[in-house]
Amino acid sequence: MVKRILAQAYLWVILFVLYLPIVIIFIYSFTEAKVLGNWTGFSTKLYTSLFSSGTHHSLMNALINTITIALLASCVATLLGSVTAIGIYNLKARSKKAIGFVNSIPILNGDIITGISLFLLFISLGISQGYLTVLLAHITFCTPYVVLSVLPRLKQMNPNIYEAALDLGATPMQALRKVIIPEIRPGMISGFMLSVTLSIDDFAVTVFTIGNQGLETLSTYIYADARKGGLTPELRPLSTIIFIVVLTLLIVINHRTGKAKNN
């Protein structure tokens, strides 16, 4: 009984520490104070200012760049990662273990090492840094996470259903589309969501591959803003909106996944 109470108390303390900063940002997004922690009364002025045309042009450009890069990189990474996972699943045990180890290296590797490696690669290939290099870099570090999300779904799948589909006259592409993809779809969705989150959150890889053409993402914008001695107050409502959108998507996806399992 005591162990269970302590375990629950420990869990609540961890959740409190993790979510307290988000709650603070949420609360202070409804005040006009420029300094976080200085409450000057309830107001939605920061939200209005955030979406006012021309007021924060560079911030909104950074947001658009971040979202487009995240979505494009996640779509490509989900496609590549799913195909790779299917390929790994069909390898022999020794080859599967070796490729799985190689796939884990980018995940275990430090972001700064990945960023420097990609920076040197682009320089050696003569690729000018900008939107394309950031997109390629994000696809690179997101793909292994998709592989890890899809592989467990393949292992849970009945290996005979693909062969049964072929025996019933389906082509390999039809069997892939109508049998395998429905089985691994939850893993693909999880990998896509994880890729979006990782892409939006990334700084170390982005800063090494973004170049000096004036391109900015949210992470590089916030870093540059912080170096000036403070953060733009409109970042508080923007962070709140991003958190609510991501949380809503996760709730919807988990609800649909649970409903599908029950059916």
UniProtKB/TrEMBL annotation:
Localization terms from the record: Cell membrane
Keyword line: Cell membrane, Membrane, Transmembrane, Transmembrane helix, Transport
Protein name according to UniProt: Spermidine putrescine ABC transporter permease component PotC
CDD domains associated with the record: TM_PBP2
Start and end residues of each ABC transmembrane type-1 domain: 63-253
InterPro entries the record matches: Bact_Polyamine_Transport, MetI-like, MetI-like_sf
Annotated family: Belongs to the binding-protein-dependent transport system permease family. CysTW subfamily.
PANTHER family: PUTRESCINE TRANSPORT SYSTEM PERMEASE PROTEIN POTI (PTHR43848)
Transmembrane regions listed in the UniProt entry: 9-30, 62-89, 101-125, 131-151, 192-215, 235-253
Keyword Transmembrane recorded: yes
Membrane topology of the entry: Multi-pass membrane protein
CC per GO annotation: plasma membrane
Domain of life: Bacteria
